[in-house]
Amino acid sequence: MLAGMNSIDLPATLKSLMATATAQVARYPQYTGHFTSYRLVRIKRDVKTKMGLAFARGEYAIATEVRDELPGLPSSGKFVTVWSRRNEIDTRVRVTDVEWL
């Protein structure tokens, strides 16, 4: 399994995930340029929300280091924003549950 992970083309994966996310929100003008600060991550554990499974363990996703849990309040630094392509929405995920690639 480790050999398979080393063969992943990370730049192509990032490009594909960015294209998917951009296409998912293309009809909403407020999302123009939304993903410019997003980087590639790997999710360390299953993450479930009220909308269902947002991320499966080992899944690649795009995330930003913006930690604005509540706008206008200081960040706790415990969460980052990750785009869920399943649920088509930004999702707050614990910092410890993402691996920055």
Count of DSSP-assigned helices: 2
Helix percentage: 10-25%
**Biggest sheet record:** 5 strands, antiparallel
CATH architecture: Roll
Q: In order across it, which strands form the biggest sheet? A: 6-5-4-1-7
Order of helices and strands: HHEEEEEEE
Please provide a written account of the structure.
With 101 residues, the protein is α+β, with helices and mostly antiparallel strands. It has a single domain, classed as SH3 type barrels (Roll), CATH 2.30.30. The protein is 20% helix and 32% strand. The chain is built from two helices and seven strands. The strands form two sheets. Strands 6-5-4-1-7 form a five-stranded antiparallel sheet. A two-stranded antiparallel ribbon has the order 2-3. A hairpin with a 4-residue loop joins strand 5 and strand 6. The longest helix has 15 residues. The protein is globular, with a radius of gyration of 14 Å.
